[in-house]
Design brief:
mainly beta; Nucleoside Triphosphate Pyrophosphohydrolase; 2 domains; four-stranded mixed beta sheet; three-stranded antiparallel beta sheet
């Protein structure tokens, strides 16, 4: 049998009936031989904010939690059920930076892998250029330990901890 490209060996019990009959169905599914249920490992949606000021500086966060704790990141996070990506980026910027997004412009999407709790999750990161309602209330909060402004021409992609964010930063630099 072909092996799934991801090792989800921690998944052995069916989430529907509880039987220990869950087996991989490559590339991204698991099937229960007891009840016939198929569990699909679909991607999770996430959103990232590009916030650039008048001096052409990017607002950058420092991650407070794993994965990649202590590395640079962009504000953003997972899209909740029943939430649009635009609503998610507004919520995440408010939670992490105490800022209000007043305008979003979709730029592009990029696939990512997000290791958490021994499982490798696949995500699709949707990137938005965001305009906020001023910076006087800016402060690190939630899962961000610090924020800083970095001139776009001085950005170093390797200082960003997540693969997709490094690619986003490369695109920001290239478009400057």
């Amino acid at each position: 049998m072909e092996k799934s490209p991801i090792d989800y060996s921690c998944f052995v019990f069916c989430p529907k009936c509880g039987a220990r009959m869950l087996r991989p169905q490559p590339p991204y599914a698991y099937h229960c031989d007891a009840c016939g249920f198929t569990f699909y490992m679909n991607i999770a949606a996430a959103a990232a904010a590009i916030i650039i000021d008048e001096q052409n500086r990017l607002l950058v966060a420092t991650r407070a939690k794993d994965p990649a704790k202590g590395t640079l990141d962009l504000p953003g996070g997972f899209v909740n059920p029943d939430e649009t990506a635009e609503e998610a980026i507004g919520r995440e910027v408010r939670e992490e930076l105490n800022l209000e997004v007043v305008e979003t412009m979709y730029l592009f999407s990029i696939p990512n892998e997000y290791p958490y709790g021994g499982v490798l999750y696949h995500t699709l990161d949707m990137v938005y250029r965001c305009r906020v309602d001023g910076f006087t209330e800016l402060k690190a909060a939630d899962d961000v330990t610090a924020v800083q402004w970095i001139a776009v021409r001085q950005l170093e992609p390797d200082k960003f901890g997540l693969k997709s964010v490094r690619e986003i930063i490369k695109r920001v630099i290239a478009s400057a």
